Amino acid sequence: MARPKPVSLMTPTMVDLFLSSAARAKSKRSLADQRKWLLRFAAYFHDAPAIIFEERASRGEVNKWRAEWKHSPKQHDMAGTHAARVLNWAVEEGHLSEHHCHKLPRLYTVDRSEVVWTPSDREAINSRAPEWVRRVLCVACETGLRPGDLIKLTRTAVEQTPHGRRLRVRTNKRGRIAHIPITPALAEVIDATPKDRLLILTNASGGQLTEHRASEGVRQWRDKAGLSPDLRLQDCRGTAATRLLNAGLSLSEIANHMGWSLRHAANVIEHYAQVSPAETDKVLSKLAQAKQGGS
Questions:
Q1: What pLDDT sits at residue 28?
Q2: Residue 15 in contact with residue 85, Cβ under 8 Å?
Q3: pLDDT for the residue numbered 222
């Protein structure tokens, strides 16, 4: 099929080419969502040649289109995300020389202190995801380590203590040593790691994970489980803060480990308690004790 010349390529045709290309979304659900938004985009610009997006003024036109959903910040931002995606592809494929719709302003913001993985969220993943994804999610929720530290976690980080075991980890971001209690759930993952394997977390074939693959694996199974798109691997840290409080760490120790202020640590834990009814009383009681202790 001959590639249309840029001057004659209409926006709906550009969208059709993208949706029939290998660059389109892979999963059935993501593709349906992508198709919905791009067909809206194509309908709005139905009589416009694609080359208009090489002009600076096109940014204002795309923002005008997105404003149809200004009543719903998430949808407003989603419209821009999909528009930029197809325009990026058009530049990569040579249909356009450039476009001006990068980093469109967003309306929707998330208070990350209110985004935590609840027990029901974890169960939704664990009931369908492969073992390597379940292990990543578990260790993230039990330790609060960032993806960059998770993928480097080895058996040599395990230390014996008078009453059990802990992890001794030098974190990438702050370069500090973190001592993390090994909870029963974390112990199961560590003890199930093959004896001849140094890395605690690996990909499906037993090889080393990258930060992107660890995060992407959790994201893919989050979507398949129908969970909130706001949930990321990074948000396991709120769940971990609660686990560490239950394991006996003080509020200041948790804040130091997470790189948070005391107030933020308390807010995250309090929110976790509110959205996890089975743990509410226990967590709030421990949090109150921690606050009274000035820790």
A1: 81
A2: no
A3: 94
**DSSP state letters, the chain:** -PPPPTTT-BHHHHHHHHHTSTTS--SHHHHHHHHHHHHHHHHHTTTSBGGGGGSTHHHHHHHHHHGGGTTSHHHHHHHHHHHHHHHHHHHHTTS-S--S-TT--------GGG----HHHHHHHHTTS-HHHHHHHHHHHHH---HHHHTT-BGGGEEEETTEEEEEEE-TTT--EEEEE--HHHHHHHHHS-TT--BSS--TTS----HHHHHHHHHHHHHHTT--TT--GGGHHHHHHHHHHHTT--HHHHHHHHT--HHHHHHHHHHHHHH-GGGHHHHHHHHHHHHHTT-
Instruction: Phi first, then psi: give them for residue 36, nearest 5 degrees.
Output: -55, -50
**Are the C-beta atoms of residues 245 and 286 closer than 8 Å to each other?**
yes
What pTM does this model have? 0.59
Measured between its terminal Cα atoms, the distance across the chain in Å is 68
Question: pLDDT of 149-184, one tens digit each?
Answer: 999 999 999 999 888 898 999 888 767 788 888 888
Which positions of the chain have pLDDT values less than 70? 1-7, 110-113, 174, 273-284, 287, 291, 293-295
Are 178 and 171 a contacting pair, CB within 8 Å? Answer: yes
Query: Going by C-beta distance under 8 Å and a sequence separation of 6 or more, which residues neighbour residue 240?
Result: 140, 141, 142, 143, 144, 145, 258
Place of tokens 């706001």: 230
